[in-house]
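Re: [ENG-882] Designed sequences occasionally contain unexpected residues at chain ends

Forwarding the minimal case from QA. Structure tokens:
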């Protein structure tokens, strides 16, 4: 018979779900702010690497269930890409606010600890994600702030429909707006470490520098960035084909 402490820990981990907010890697629909510095086909290929590495990061967490939440129009393609490795669920409604509400309406049942995570932070250290679930155990919601005023993850143990009204995880005032609504709903908020996601060229430059030193943190993304740098150096016009 297992000790009670081990049984409780295992049960606690089984009550955790990480939901990645994803889109199908289609040209012109993903990471559009990066198209100011990279051609659209390159951005699309990069996003697919970011998403695949993010899924790998999520699946490395011990005892945490992993799923994808996506727009209804992307369900078939993402289901095909995911194969049998994880659940893919279509959101109700359009936009990120609707997607976030859908995450908790679908998964946050019976005090299940649920965290919605963006699809472009595969370089996030796994202990930060693990700690987010621990923080959520003691708070109504948990939030992971980004350096630009948005947030890269948000977690809850119940659905709060008004919590994400007119919201977007990556926008400059998203964190402040979220905290204002959380206070209005009398929800206790816990915080993870601040981090950065990949929205603009400066973010990508920072990520590339970090992955040159530690490519195993996000191996697909690291390989794509290395190939892009080499191709650009050898033939700037040919880089668009990556």
């Amino acid at each position: 018979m297992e000790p009670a402490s081990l049984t409780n820990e295992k049960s606690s981990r089984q009550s955790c779900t990480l939901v990645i907010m994803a889109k199908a890697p289609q040209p012109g629909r993903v990471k559009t702010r990066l198209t100011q510095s990279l051609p659209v086909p390159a951005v699309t290929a990069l996003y697919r690497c970011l998403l695949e590495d993010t899924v790998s990061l999520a699946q490395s967490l011990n005892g945490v269930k992993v799923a994808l939440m996506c727009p209804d129009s992307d369900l078939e393609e993402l289901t095909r890409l995911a194969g049998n490795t994880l659940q893919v669920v279509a959101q109700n409604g359009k936009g990120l606010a609707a997607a976030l509400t859908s995450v908790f309406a679908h998964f946050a049942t019976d005090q299940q600890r649920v965290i919605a995570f963006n699809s472009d932070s595969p370089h996030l250290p796994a202990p930060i994600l693990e700690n987010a679930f621990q923080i959520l155990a003691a708070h109504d919601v948990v939030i992971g702030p980004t350096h630009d005023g948005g947030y890269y993850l948000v977690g809850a143990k119940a659905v709060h429909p008004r919590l994400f009204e007119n919201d977007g995880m990556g926008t400059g005032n998203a964190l402040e707006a979220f905290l204002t609504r959380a206070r209005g709903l009398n929800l206790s908020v816990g915080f993870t470490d601040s981090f950065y996601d990949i929205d603009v060229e400066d973010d990508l430059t920072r990520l590339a520098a970090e992955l040159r030193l530690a490519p195993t943190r996000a191996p697909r993304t690291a390989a794509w960035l290395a190939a892009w740098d080499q191709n650009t150096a050898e033939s700037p016009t040919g880089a668009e084909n990556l």
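QA comment: On inspection the terminal residues look reasonable. The beta strands are 16-21, 65-70, 87-90, 113-118, 141-145, 151-156, 189-191. Proposing we downgrade this to a documentation issue.
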